[in-house]
Task: structure prediction
Amino acid sequence: MFDRDTTNIAKTQIGFLDFIIKPTFEVVVKVMPHLEFTLRNIETNKANWTSRFEEYEKIKEAGNKIEDKV
Result:
């Protein structure tokens, strides 16, 4: 998970957003509804990482370091 040469960083970010961040903020928004904008920001962030998924997958498959390609 922490090896940049073998991990699709976009995939890990999407998973983190889906399983940790979004559920946490859904509860927060129930208590503080004025923070609903954070849920939209989370979805925007997820869309950004989703759009980069294939890019990171190709880098991973090529066995190259991400820093060299991004």
The two ends are 19 Å apart (CA to CA). The chain is about 75% helix and 0% strand. The mean pLDDT is 88. Residues 59 and 69 are 7 Å apart (CA to CA).
